[in-house]
Write a structure and sequence with these properties.
Distance between the termini: 31 Å
Helix content: 40-55%
Strand content: 5-15%
Shape: elongated
Number of strands: 14
Length: about 600
């Protein structure tokens, strides 16, 4: 039976690859997933009366007028923070400001945050809820209406004594940098490149947070942005509660991100034949695929999709409520009712959100995939790679005994050749693998060095690193090509380096994908797509031309790295690492790059 499994292993591996990649393609299918539901009974979303009225809408309009004057006057951070602080003080809410300064390899970013704390009248204030807005929207425009909503909510919520938790109102300078400085100071987190003033007003442990992003004049839908740094996600009960409240209390439809269905339908009708564009299944698949692809992009790169993403590493469940710009029909009135009811729901919590899912993929505003429905797709590909590596390892330990001419003449007639074991020297392939990771570390040091980042013409250096890596692969192959052979005639020569290096390369890549799939599924799926088949088909080659052709094909896998790390303006990935602590840049340099280099060295070796 074992021999039969071994012989069928190539077929099994092909089947696993097809199954894994097909599973990934089926993730947006309407036949997968299920509808959202509430796990935490204490939330009771949409079960309260809301009292947000048109008087509060008028208050928001007044605040908006003052904010627009500050914008038209090109007011400084000091002037803007002073205005917000004065509003909180007039409302009787203790308020303070916090100055901060980020220093990176290319620039210094300064700003002033403003915050106020509404103490809970019914408890000791050991827990808190955050309502936040930044001066800059995720659309890169001003978020004046979002700030006006926060100020009017502060005036409205101050009138009621039903709150069991402190409410912290935060207006962060910039987009995400202000909130990063405030959260770090609030939780006592030291950051080497951040100089921030200490927090003067403290509250309790923050359980939940809402970030309001309202860039337009009015809106048609409310979008949910939920991805945090390095693939973290909030508890799903928070989003599910918001969806129920917005739909039933506020009468506002909810979408994932800013993906309005009508826009997607028009795209489908333009790109697909009429026969397919009218199919309900295809339309629904395309809508879900758009959501899944955007989620994968955020999560694989480790970037937060909004200000809320900075809260997750402090175990705070948070989302960004995005008012999708449109000519109507909703405005301050609908948004205020939805936020009020959501705050009342969060106020009901007796403990942190824990009952619902932390690992999921939102395929639509009302549907999601559980971890058991998407995780196997990447794991199956990693299993196929592991089987491939183990097979190469086993094959490297055996060699078919070749009969000499003397033995053929005097030996038994018709005797079949024997299989004999041979030594597998693991030191050299391990040294090569270590060298590739050292090269990855050096690459990361170079691209994050202040000298390199300050070069305005750094795109001219794009060919240098790929050419250096090609030279490294050639030198590695030349230095390891002459392997020791045994002087005894009957003793087989050691296993070839190419087989051992490929076996270790496949097993390491499989292990990385399997472990990463639990921490960051989108990154693991991206690795499975990019590395699964290319690493499996790597093989030694005869002839310099063939070797160089294979090496260049493998370096095509590195093109996304060079574009991400070098060609984008100010290298967003390096900025994410230096300011937010996103792992993507070091991961691709120290993990992904060495894996590709190891496969390249295999191709540069002789059989």
């Amino acid at each position: 039976m074992e021999r039969g499994i071994y012989r069928a292993l190539p077929v099994i591996r092909v089947f696993l690859f097809i199954l894994g990649y097909s599973w990934m393609l089926m993730l947006p299918s309407p036949q997968l997933g299920r509808g959202i539901y509430i796990d935490e009974n204490a939330l009771q979303p949409g079960q309260v009366n809301t009292y947000w009225s048109w008087d509060d809408v008028h208050s928001a309009d007044v605040y908006l007028g003052h904010l627009e004057q500050l914008r038209d006057q090109n007011a400084s951070s000091v002037e803007k923070s002073s205005f917000v602080r004065s509003v909180f003080s007039e409302l009787g809410i203790p308020a303070a400001t916090q100055g901060y300064s980020f220093k990176t390899g290319t620039m210094t970013l300064d700003g002033i945050n403003t915050y106020g704390v509404l103490s809970a009248p019914r408890t000791s204030g050991t827990e808190a809820i955050v309502i936040a807005a930044s001066w800059i929207s995720l659309t890169a425009g001003p978020n004046l209406r979002g700030i006006a909503t926060v100020l009017s909510l502060a005036a409205y919520l101050k009138r009621y004594s039903l709150w069991a938790k402190d409410i912290i109102f935060i207006v962060g300078d910039g987009y995400m940098d202000g909130m990063q400085a405030w959260l770090g100071a609030y939780h006592g987190l030291d950051q080497s490149n951040l100089d921030a003033e200490p927090i003067k007003l403290h509250s309790g442990v923050i359980w939940t947070a809402l970030a309001i992003d309202y860039p337009g004049h009015s809106f048609s839908h409310l979008g949910i942005f939920y991805e945090g740094l390095n693939g973290r996600l909030p508890n799903q009960d928070l989003m599910n509660s918001f969806h129920i409240i917005s739909t039933h209390t506020g009468g506002v439809p909810v979408v994932v991100y800013d993906h309005v269905e009508e826009q997607m339908d028009s795209i489908i009708s333009r790109w697909l034949p009429q026969l397919f564009s009218r199919q309900a299944y295809i339309k629904e698949y395309a809508r879900r695929a758009r959501n899944v692809i955007r989620h994968v992009r955020y999560q694989a790169l480790g970037r937060a999709s909004g200000v809320h993403g900075l809260f997750h590493r402090f175990r705070v469940d948070a989302i960004t409520v995005f008012a999708v710009p449109a000519t109507g029909p909703h405005g301050f009135h609908a948004l205020g009712r939805v936020i009020e009811s959501t705050l009342r729901t969060m106020n009901n919590l007796l403990e942190r959100l824990h009952a619902s899912f932390f690992f999921y993929v939102l395929t639509g505003p009302g549907t999601f995939l559980k971890i058991g429905q998407y995780l196997p797709s990447a794991v199956i590909v990693s299993v196929a790679m592991m089987f491939g590596g183990l097979r190469v390892w086993v094959d490297a330990g055996w060699v078919k005994q070749q009969w000499s001419s003397e033995k053929v003449n005097h030996g038994p007639a018709g005797k079949a050749p024997k299989w004999k074991t041979r030594r597998r020297n693991v030191i050299i392939p391990l040294v090569v693998m270590l060298a590739t990771h050292v090269v990855g570390g050096i690459t990361f040091f170079v691209v994050t060095n202040s000298w390199f980042l300050t070069r305005t013409d750094k795109t001219t250096y794009l060919p240098i690193i790929p050419l250096s890596l090609i030279v490294f692969s050639i030198l590695s192959a030349l230095l390891t090509s002459d392997q020791p052979t045994n002087s005894q005639h009957d003793e087989p020569s050691p296993a070839p380096l190419s087989s051992l290096l490929k076996a270790f390369n496949l097993c390491l890549a499989s292990t990385v994908i399997s472990i990463t799939s639990v921490l960051n599924f989108s990154l693991a799926a991206s690795l499975a797509i990019l590395l699964g088949i290319p690493l499996s088909v790597s093989s030694p080659t005869i002839g310099l031309t063939s070797k160089m052709a294979k090496a260049m094909s493998y370096f095509m896998l590195l093109l996304p790295i060079w574009w991400t790390l070098l060609a984008t303006p100010m290298s967003q990935s390096i900025w994410d690492w230096q300011v937010w602590g996103v792992w993507f840049a070091p991961f691709v340099c120290i993990v992904y790059l060495p894996l590709v280099l190891q496969a390249t060295v295999v191709c540069m070796l002789d059989p």
